[in-house]
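SAMPLE LOG
Freezer: B-3
Tube label: C17
Construct: single chain, 50 aa
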Amino acid sequence: MVSCASCGATAETPLGWTTDVTARGTHHLCDRCSRDNIRSIEGRLDLADW
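STRUCTURE (predicted):
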C-alpha cells in the first residue's frame, strides 16, 4: 500500500498515480494531486511557450 505525499490518500494499486524517485526516496502523488500539480505548473508557463 502506498500513500500520497501531498494529501495522505492511500491505495493498494495506485493506478494513475505519479511516482517521483529521487536520492531522498520515492514519493507518490494520487491522481487528484497529480492533476493539481500539473495545473499549477501549466499556470506558471508563459503563454508564448504554448
